[in-house]
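Key result, reporting period 2: structure in, sequence out.
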């Protein structure tokens, strides 16, 4: 069997020394793809909570999330990105990109632009947004315990409490998400009195605020 040895037309490397992708060696192929890869990328942060905007909305920053964001920025998610080093204004990336029927891996240094916006949750918090109100009534100690239970449930699910108001016989809690509030009562086997108030229209549908009344002395 005769072994046919290729020579790269760009650098003259031979196929018995390096892998070839089509007519070119992987080194030259990687260099070409590196030159075509943008040298700048943008990362959007919320200026209040510090979360990063990714495909699924704002999330806590992590290397995995940043790699997903950068892959989208520089190659529309057609490549895989691994962060080697990163700072406020630059990053060194290891990029695996498709090349013909194969792929090549190369390192690329890029400039980073940190863009600061305000995420929807922070905007809603600052504007006092809420979808549900829970009216807790009864013994102060029971009300306080139930309040902490609600706060823990909501924050663990990335919701927020807009405000709380103390009244003579209890507490009113304003919560960001009505479905989350409903699930709290369902999962804790509580049966409050519920009422609904129309407060707007979204995408042609009526939107209601939910009010739940729970007397802890009953």
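The corresponding designed sequence is given below.
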């Amino acid at each position: 069997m005769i072994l046919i040895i290729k020579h790269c037309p760009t650098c003259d490397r031979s196929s018995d020394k390096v892998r070839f992708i089509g007519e070119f060696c992987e080194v030259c192929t990687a260099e070409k793809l590196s030159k075509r890869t943008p040298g700048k990328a943008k990362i959007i942060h919320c200026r209040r909570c510090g979360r990063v905007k990714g495909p699924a909305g704002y999330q806590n920053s992590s290397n995995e999330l940043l790699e997903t964001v950068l892959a989208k920025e520089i190659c529309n998610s057609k490549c895989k990105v691994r962060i080697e080093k990163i700072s406020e204004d630059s990053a060194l990336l290891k990029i695996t990109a498709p090349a013909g029927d194969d792929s090549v891996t190369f390192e690329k240094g890029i400039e980073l632009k940190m863009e600061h916006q305000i995420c929807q949750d922070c905007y809603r918090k600052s504007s006092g947004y809420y979808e549900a109100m829970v009216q807790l009534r009864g013994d102060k100690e029971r009300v306080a315990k139930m309040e902490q239970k609600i706060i823990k449930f909501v924050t663990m699910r990335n919701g927020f409490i807009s405000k709380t108001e103390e009244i003579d016989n209890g507490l009113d809690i304003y919560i960001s998400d009505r479905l989350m509030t409903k699930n709290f009562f369902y999962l804790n086997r509580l049966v409050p009195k519920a009422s609904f108030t129309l407060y707007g229209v979204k995408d042609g549908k009526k939107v209601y605020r939910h009010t739940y009344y729970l007397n802890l002395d009953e």
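The longest strand covers residues 102-117. The CA atoms of residues 198 and 208 lie 4 Å apart. This case is discussed further under Risks and Mitigation.
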